[in-house]
């Protein structure tokens, strides 16, 4: 099983690039973030033509997550974590969807960015991470093989960014953000990319500004966390960097992990 995560940064704007990536790399499961589409506008038929069935949790213009599966329908288990956005009356943002795929629980998340820091958006980020941790503990207690994947908007270590100094004031690198992420790992989850790249230096995101892609000024915020049942079967991980360099690409590159059957 090949499980991938891809912050697509607008599914309609990136649809040709997304279909290209699916056809070329053929992940078993593709978890998407920032689809930026309402539910009725999601292009499910386009993926069906490629052999992928999908579930999704959309939102107009912002956020949104989806799970695509090659050859079978993901069985939805849960959507949303029951936490309202940082503004009064805003309601819950579309950032979480969970499904069963061939005996594996797959959780697709788009964790809040948290900027500007400090402020209500950063407080919301930390509260959302606590909700996520609680849900992950519930899944753990069920002893289900599980992968929690997506854009975590957390740079875990200094060697996960081209310049720690340049990002020092960003919400992605604050001690509170890193501590919350570390607590997930302390609960027993394995960071798949870090496990096979212990020295860091792996980027998954390059900003559109200031020539970040051309200068390789990137960082790692897209993660794949595994329960021990899957971590023991981890064969390989990778970042499809070349897809970031294509015309009208997302500012993220796809990240994947291959799990032995």
Automatic annotation (TrEMBL):
**Residues engaged in binding Mg(2+):** 7, 34, 151, 153, 251-252
Protein's GO biological process:
DNA repair
Species the sequence originates in: Altererythrobacter epoxidivorans
Q: Which residues are listed under the site Important for catalytic activity?
A: 222
Q: Which residues form a coiled coil?
A: none
Task: Name the Pfam families on file.
Answer: Exo_endo_phos (PF03372)
- Manner of cofactor binding, per the entry note: Probably binds two magnesium or manganese ions per subunit.
Residues forming the Endonuclease/exonuclease/phosphatase domain are 4-252
Annotated protein name in UniProt: Exodeoxyribonuclease III
Give the molecular function GO annotations. double-stranded DNA 3'-5' DNA exonuclease activity; metal ion binding
Instruction: Name the InterPro entries for this protein.
Output: AP_endonuc_1, Endo/exonu/phosph_ase_sf, Endo/exonuclease/phosphatase, ExoIII-like
Instruction: Report which superkingdom the organism of origin falls in.
Output: Bacteria
Which EC number(s) does the record attach to this protein? Answer: 3.1.11.2
Matching PROSITE patterns: AP_NUCLEASE_F1_4
Cofactor section: Mg(2+); Mn(2+)
Family membership noted in the UniProt record:
Belongs to the DNA repair enzymes AP/ExoA family.
